[in-house]
From TrEMBL:
It comes from the Bacteria. InterPro entries: D12N6_MeTrfase_N (IPR022749), DNA_Adenine_Mtase (IPR051537), DNA_methylase_A-5 (IPR003356), DNA_methylase_N6_adenine_CS (IPR002052), SAM-dependent_MTases_sf (IPR029063), T1MK-like_N_sf (IPR038333). This is site-specific DNA-methyltransferase (adenine-specific). One of its GO terms (molecular function) is methyltransferase activity. The keyword Lyase does not apply. It comes from Streptomyces edwardsiae. GO terms for biological process: methylation. The lineage of its organism: Bacteria, Bacillati, Actinomycetota, Actinomycetes, Kitasatosporales.
């Protein structure tokens, strides 16, 4: 089926909006159109075995035996409908449409009825009936031919996605929260599976796949299709979890129709209510929403982080509250199969991120610690940069992160960075923010280049050498050092000094604060280069004024803060025999992990500031992936003469056009 055909079918379904206009807000159209489309699809799938199921249901009506397994066998699917009603029959009886539709929906097996319940379908039936629209809406859908032989499952996915995209536009939601462009999924699954091609073709191959943010199930379907393409006899079990009820219902119905177990698609939040606890999977992939905060599940996530630590999912660290992307990645890593002593087992996973997880967070932050955990465990196999304007809900650049705990020997300790930002073709018509697409030739090129990454990176003569970089894991690490410089002060009594003296709480609470103030006024304009000289002069002045010199560290510190003035030529202040650091001159440097920090200090800092030192107690280790910097190519500015000539040519053209206007 070509794209125009599934667009035509989506248009037919969406034409129901013309009936709803006035009685429904635009943002509510999808609440009617989506469940009716699902219902019509289920009806079309069950049509060939409808009479047989009705016959079996009638036979077991009074038997007292649960006929569920007999009805499933009769229907040829994991779901069925016991009623002899159809949408066409219901539409033909407008007076009883609501009652008959409720009976019809109630006759579905529990798993199919659960899908429709997630759409709150019963409420929509009542609302449409009250508005006198129910039989008309049903009539519209009876004309929609969604039989599997006309609309294969793959194309049905396109129709659902097109409907969801329109629903999202009407309700000001982001379609990207529900599904990912199919060509992006195709690239993702091929990069994920490519190294396992031979193993997947073995007889009796069984593979499990998880998408913890599965939306309508597009990624799961693509993985199923690709593995079956490599080995038609392979067994593929797909699992997912989804928070959006409409997307969950569509995904679940798709699995039912394909003969997969719909119970494998859990409903709820993957962080607070993991639907697949203690399970591990061969492959995992996800496109979690970009930059979505996790405040709603903050308590549950933080509790698991503190209580379980490394035994839980989030032991490595917690990212900032406004972006839960790295939580999804940790969740997926926790479900990797362990590698056995012979090298068997293990998992591969791929996830779509924006640029933030590459570098957000300084050394010691949650994000940096998560990256450190991944790289030090040698799980990150590669990162692929995609073109911008590729997704429906964002025009920003995106990246595939590919991880595995069973790297091939030549990849161990290494990370591949691949720049595929120029692999795209312009779309004839934009869809939201999506203006670019990946063609089949682009997908093939990127998959081939990724598979040959090590060879291409090592061959300076290769035409695509500049598009691939290979680094050791440690190359992404750095030491965040604190460079200190000594506090240098001179001491003086000025109007500002006296004002600061009156404002100092530590001094003003002394019994003889006024005597101190009078004594200091007598030294107005005095200045000293050393603290000891200043303290002696001040002490003498206080004694002459009839006072006694206070003692104690708080007083001495407060007095120094009042009288001391920073001066590059001043006296170095000492604490316990060591120079005191000046907080205002403190600086930070990022030093590559493999480099000696003291050598760095001597080479980069001492030529400019000879008395600087490193406070090793404050050193932190951080990790980041500076993808853009790695692939940056300097482009010199155009010569001034060329720019000047272009400006003159434009001036001449403007003058010519103005001359034509004034003639």
């Amino acid at each position: 089926m070509n794209s125009s055909k599934h667009t035509e079918l989506a248009n037919h379904a969406w034409s129901v909006a013309d009936l709803l206009r006035g009685d429904y807000k635009q943002s509510d159209y999808g609440k009617v159109i989506l469940p009716f489309t699902v219902l019509r699809r289920l009806e079309c799938v069950l049509e060939p075995t409808r009479d047989k199921v009705a016959e079996i249901a009638e036979q077991h009506k009074e038997s007292g035996i649960d006929p569920d397994r007999f009805l499933r066998r009769a229907s040829g699917h994991s779901f069925y409908n016991r009623s002899s009603l159809t949408l066409k029959k219901i539409a033909a009886d407008p007076q009883n449409a609501a009652q008959n539709l409720q009976v019809y929906v109630g006759a579905f097996s529990d798993n199919a009825r659960g899908v429709l319940d997630r759409f709150e379908f019963a409420q929509q039936i009542k609302r449409l009936d009250s508005a006198g629209l129910l039989y008309q809406v049903i009539g519209k859908f009876t004309d929609l031919d969604l039989r599997p032989e006309v609309v294969p499952n793959h194309n049905m996915g396109y129709i659902f996605e097109e409907l969801i995209r329109r629903f999202a536009e009407q309700s000001n939601e982001t379609a990207g929260e529900h599904f990912t462009p199919r060509e992006v999924i195709q690239l993702m699954v091929r990069l994920l599976v490519a190294p396992d091609g031979d193993a997947l073709q073995l007889p009796g191959a069984v593979r499990t796949v998880l998408d913890p943010a599965c939306g309508t199930g597009g990624m799961l379907s693509a993985m199923d299709d690709l593995i079956k393409e490599l080995n038609p006899d392979a067994t593929v079990e797909v699992f997912g979890q989804e928070l959006n009820p409409e997307s969950w219902a569509i995904c679940r119905s798709d699995l039912m129709i394909k003969g997969q177990d719909p119970e494998n698609i859990a409903f709820g939040n993957s962080f607070s209510d993991d639907g697949h606890k203690r399970k591990t999977f061969d492959y995992m992939l996800a496109n979690p929403p970009f930059g979505v905060e996790w405040k709603k599940v903050k308590d549950e996530v933080e509790d698991e982080h503190k209580a379980l630590g490394d035994a839980g999912r989030f032991g490595a660290g917690l990212p900032r509250i406004n972006d839960g992307s790295l939580l999804f990645l940790q969740h997926m890593i926790s479900k990797m199969k362990p590698v056995d002593v012979s090298g068997g087992g293990g998992s591969r996973l791929a996830i779509v991120f924006n640029g933030s997880p590459l570098f957000t967070g300084a050394a010691g932050s949650g994000e940096s610690e998560i990256r450190r955990w991944i790289l030090e465990n040698d799980w990150l196999e590669g990162i692929v940069a995609l073109p911008d304007q590729l997704f429906y809900n964002t025009g920003i650049s995106t990246y595939f992160w590919i991880l595995t705990n069973r790297k091939s020997p030549d990849h161990k300790g290494k990370v591949v960075l691949l720049d595929a930002r120029d692999q795209w073709q312009k779309m004839r018509k934009s869809l939201g923010d999506k203006r670019k697409a990946l063609g089949k030739e682009h997908i093939a090129e990127v998959v081939k280049l990724y598979g040959e990454a090590l060879a291409v990176a090592g061959d300076a003569e290769h035409p695509l050498h500049g598009k691939v970089k290979v680094f050791a894991n440690e190359d992404f690490g750095y030491q965040r050092i604190t460079v200190e410089r000594p506090l240098k002060l001179r001491f003086e009594v000025t109007e500002e000094t006296l004002a600061a003296l009156e404002a100092s709480k530590a001094i003003q609470k002394l019994p003889q604060a006024s005597v101190l103030a009078d004594a200091f006024k007598s030294l107005m304009g005095a200045s000293w280069g050393a603290k000891q000289e200043a303290w002696l002069a001040l002490k003498d002045a206080v004694v002459q004024a009839g006072g006694t010199w206070p003692t104690g560290a708080p007083f001495n510190k407060a007095l120094r803060d009042v009288l001391g003035v920073r001066d590059p030529g001043g006296e170095v202040q000492v604490v316990k025999g060591q120079p005191e650091a000046d907080a205002e001159l403190r600086d930070y440097e990022n030093v590559p992990l493999r480099e000696d920090v003291e050598e760095y200090l001597r080479r980069e800092v001492h030529p400019h500031v000879a008395d600087a030192w490193i406070d090793h107690s404050k050193t932190k280790v951080g990790y980041e992936v500076p993808f853009t910097r790695v692939f940056y190519v300097y482009e010199p500015p155009r010569p001034l003469a060329e720019i000047d000539a272009e400006l003159k040519a434009l001036e001449t053209e403007i003058q010519s056009l103005l001359g034509e206007v004034t003639e």
